[in-house]
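Mods, move this if it's the wrong board.
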Amino acid sequence: MAVRISSQSDRNPPTRGVDRQNVLKGRRVVVVDDSFSQRRRLCEVYESLGMQIVGEASNGLEALAMVERMRPDLVSLDV
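Not the wrong board. Structure tokens:
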């Protein structure tokens, strides 16, 4: 019986043609969380990755209206 030990590179193969460092840069994001402090923290993290925060919402109704109006690339939701 042969045992193969996988390396880190086996689990995360390189992505061809995609700049992994900049794939999120410039993406437009709406952040939804009922906690103001959590929204602030998430915005800080996303901005540090080069993403553009186009809106924040504290509940689902606000989020729906904002997504319809802003048309973001991504929506971050607290479930």
